[in-house]
């Protein structure tokens, strides 16, 4: 079975057009058509309904689609396995700063053990910056707090709870639970103005008809965490950002009354016209274990 024919079939399915598939594959439209026709003859089934310039996948084509994905992925993995003994592969991963600081160091040793000849280059930044790098093909894929864009696909890796975090010696540590009204009387450090996290926390105060005492606003959660460590205020921070500080009793989680459940999502994002790689599968498995 010709792998180029299968690749053309997958591109037509994902892009919904022979012309768009041809552009993505740097081929002419007749070349893509010829590959699809060759594949249809080989497997003896019609994969697309054609009505002028419009196409739609047949029921047989829908059945074949996931199998074609597995065939292409298996081919790519085999090709990588053969090449890595000769040519080291460079993988460029984009990551939100807090994820690269607090999660990836625990995962990358196992990754390097699995893919010994892969050279890894890490690029960090704000989640929106990483999204743009994925779109501009500056990184192979990104690990970010949820970002959406019509050119990218995302894989939900896990949900990360956000908690009220305070430093050593804070008054709240003498209480079992605190209210939103009590929190509003203490200096708060907010991060990432306008993000979904920021909006959810602001809504928490607005729904209780109180105004937060915003002492500082910063552009990333790592800075917010460090300011809390210095005792400059308290903050709502995700679990992955403060896991080590909580374990070392440098920072402390405070429960709220009534209980408030706020989560952020950690996603892996990659271009829609690019197949999901074996590297993403590995990281997805490891991150689910976190």
Q: How are the SSEs ordered, and which strands pair?
A:
Elements: H1 3-15, H2 18-25, H3 29-43, E1 48-51, E2 54-57, H4 59-84, E3 89-96, H5 97-102, H6 104-114, E4 118-125, H7 127-135, E5 141-145, E6 152-167, E7 177-178, H8 180-183, E8 188-191, H9 196-207, E9 214-218, H10 221-229, E10 235-238, H11 239-247, E11 251-256, E12 262-271, H12 278-288
Parallel strand pairs: 3-4, 3-5, 7-11, 8-9
Antiparallel strand pairs: 1-2, 5-12, 6-10, 6-11, 6-12
Account of the 3D structure:
The chain has 290 residues and is of the alpha/beta class. It has three domains: 3-84, Arc Repressor Mutant, subunit A (Orthogonal Bundle); 89-158 and 266-288, 3-Layer(aba) Sandwich (D-Maltodextrin-Binding Protein, domain 2), CATH 3.40.190.10; 161-262, Periplasmic binding protein-like II (D-Maltodextrin-Binding Protein, domain 2, 3-Layer(aba) Sandwich). The chain has twelve helices and twelve strands. It has helices at 3-15, 18-25, 29-43, 59-84, 97-102, 104-114, 127-135, 180-183, 196-207, 221-229, 239-247, 278-288; strands spanning 48-51, 54-57, 89-96, 118-125, 141-145, 152-167, 177-178, 188-191, 214-218, 235-238, 251-256, 262-271. The strands form three sheets. Strands 3, 4, 5, 6, 7, 10, 11 and 12 form an eight-stranded mixed sheet that branches. The protein has a two-stranded antiparallel ribbon with strand order 1-2. The protein has a two-stranded parallel sheet with strand order 8-9. Strand 1 (48-51) and strand 2 (54-57) form a beta hairpin. Helix 1 (3-15) packs across helix 4 (59-84) and helix 2 packs across helix 3. It is elongated, with a radius of gyration of 24 Å.
């Amino acid at each position: 079975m010709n792998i180029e024919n299968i690749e053309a079939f997958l591109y037509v399915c994902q892009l919904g057009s022979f012309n768009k598939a041809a552009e993505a594959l740097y081929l002419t439209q007749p070349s893509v058509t010829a590959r699809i026709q060759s594949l249809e003859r080989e497997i003896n089934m019609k994969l697309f309904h054609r009505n002028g310039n419009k196409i739609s996948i047949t029921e047989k084509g829908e059945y074949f689609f996931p199998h074609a994905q597995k065939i292409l992925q298996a081919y790519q993995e085999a090709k990588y396995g053969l090449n890595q003994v000769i040519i080291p592969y460079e993988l460029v991963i984009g990551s939100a700063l807090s994820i690269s600081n607090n999660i990836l160091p625990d995962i990358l040793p196992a990754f390097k053990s699995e893919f010994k000849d892969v050279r890894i280059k890490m690029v960090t930044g704000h989640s929106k910056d990483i999204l743009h790098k994925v779109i501009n093909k500056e990184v192979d894929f990104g690990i970010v707090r949820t970002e959406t864009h019509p050119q990218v696909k995302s894989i939900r890796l896990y949900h990360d709870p956000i908690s009220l975090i305070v430093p050593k010696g804070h008054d709240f540590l003498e209480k079992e639970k605190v209210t939103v009204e009590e929190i509003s009387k203490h200096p708060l450090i907010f991060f990432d103005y306008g993000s979904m996290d920021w909006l959810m926390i602001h809504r928490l105060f607005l729904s209780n008809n109180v105004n937060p005492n915003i002492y500082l606003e910063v552009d990333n959660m790592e800075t917010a965490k460090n300011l809390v460590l210095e005792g400059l205020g308290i903050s709502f921070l995700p679990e992955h950002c403060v896991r080590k500080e909580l374990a070392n009793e440098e920072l402390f989680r405070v429960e709220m009354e009534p209980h408030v459940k706020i989560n952020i999502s950690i996603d892996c994002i990659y271009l829609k016209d690019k197949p999901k790689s074996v590297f993403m599968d590995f990281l997805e498995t490891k991150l689910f274990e976190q």
